[in-house]
Design goal:
4-stranded antiparallel beta sheet
């Protein structure tokens, strides 16, 4: 059974940093790309970052380029999102995602990130 569990969210001031983690289980983690999405109140869920199985290809949404860094630890089935210079518009619930194609698409429960003075 596929399971994704995010952690690391919280409340920080503008300009601050947070590091999100997502622990995966139930599939061959090292074979699949992983993504982070976020959903702000009243808005649709949006793509944040993607990392290929061995980190050869990494993509970011324009809104987070230069501030966020996605990485992964295949030995421990984890993917991370380092978020620096956080701004109020980054406030959202952040979700880990695994698109296992024919097997389906899976989401974690989300972790709340709030940026406020």
């Amino acid at each position: 059974q596929v399971h994704l569990a995010e952690s690391g969210g919280g409340l920080v001031q503008p300009g601050g940093s947070l590091r999100l983690s997502c622990e995966a289980s139930g599939f061959n983690f090292e074979l699949w790309a992983m993504r982070w999405f976020r959903q702000a109140p009243g808005k649709e869920r949006e793509f944040v970052a993607r990392i290929s199985p061995f980190a050869a290809m990494i993509n970011y949404a324009d809104s987070v380029k230069g501030r966020f860094t996605i990485s992964r630890d295949n030995a421990n089935n984890k993917v991370f999102l380092q978020m620096d210079d956080l701004q109020p518009e980054d406030t959202a619930v952040y979700y880990c995602n695994a698109d296992l194609q024919q097997r389906g698409q899976y989401w974690g429960q989300g972790t709340q990130v709030t940026i406020s003075p």
